[in-house]
Amino acid sequence: MESQYKEMWERLNLDIPAHDALLEVLGKFYGDIYLTQQGRLKGMEYLDFVISEIHGLRIKELQEAKAKGRKVVGTFCIFVPEEIVWAADGICVGLCAGAEAGYDKVEEILPRNTCALIKSFVGFKLSKLCPFFESCDLVIGETTCDGKKKAYEIFGEYVPMYVMEVPQMKWDADRELWRSEILRLKARIEELTGRKIDYQNLLSAIKMINNRRKALWRLNELRKAVFVPISGRDALLINQISFYDDPMRFTSKVNELCDELEERVRRKEGVVPNGTVRVMLSGCPMAIPNWKLPYVIESSGAVVVFEESCVGSRNTRDLVEEDKKDLDGLIDALVDRYSKIDCACFTPNEERLEHIVAHAKAYGVDGVIYYHLNFCQPYEIEGFKVKRKLESEGIPLLTIGTDYSMEDIGQLKTRVEAFVEMLSPKA
Ligand code: BJ8
Known about the structure:
alpha/beta; Rossmann fold; 19 helices; 8 strands; 10% strand; binds Double cubane cluster
């Protein structure tokens, strides 16, 4: 891939030697974690291809679209209503980074004890390692956690930045604020793209993104089967790729994959032996290529059947209502749908506890692994209420705080193995 795209990467001003090294490490990491799995689905070949081309073909597509006048908009959070971008014929890509990169430079401008996700996206930009960043005409941030909010102020010196105000509570006044923020975004995107957002193009965008969510939810539902048809690692990867790939192509590929999965479920064919310990992962988002914990879990004798996370169910569970008669109605539908997001940045956030319990039961999990990034206060603190709730329901829980380094992998494995052992049916 290197030679084929080198010219494009040079034009994007990437640090070529460092980028080559990154792709090499990533390729090896992916090979070890993904390609060694037994009995993978045929449909995963497409996902393997997308990953192998993530800095190649997809970036080429973005560059070609830009040459025709389309604008590329990057986001970090599932609160940003991407339908607004697509309606104006923009292209929306998720930018959350899931690997350690350029931390030496990052720590010159951000405190060391900042969460890995924030350090990662700043690091990818400062070290010129991410062609997605370099393709963006606008980057949209949001006032969710304090770390992101304050980091964006500094980050805005490096990228064209726009920040949405996300309310922290869910009263009527918060809804009004959120509605006005969606309208403010609409005006900014119209200005950027030079295109007006109207009823027709917004409805088409809503349908396109709803279809992607439906396909991902269909995939989720299939994981309820007693014979688990897909590994948690593969399911996570599919969710991660949904933030980058062309939505229509991606949706049709995921639906093809689901056809294959349905067949497996019908044949009672699982990726792991029947009776393998079933685990839910709950907590902070796992941005690509953060595969550490799912790998640890699935190499410790368990299988992940559900992700209660933004790279997972929180992003796919709710649809935008389509049966609205005018533009105002569609804007209201966006407001309603996005207000259902139960991120730990909200207070109170009781509905998240209800969702965790309901999904733990529906997916027949034996236990929940609660994951927070170190220095992520919203998710770490909310973990206390999650623990209490799960205890009251008799659902076992293991809490893990970690980051993107590999230093703690041995320690994590010991803890996860002990948890899985505790959950395993005794002979
Ligand atoms: S809707 S979870 S994508 S904000 S891990 S940066 S919270 S300190 S990512 Fe998120 Fe939107 Fe919420 Fe989802 Fe801060 Fe925590 Fe870091 Fe985090």
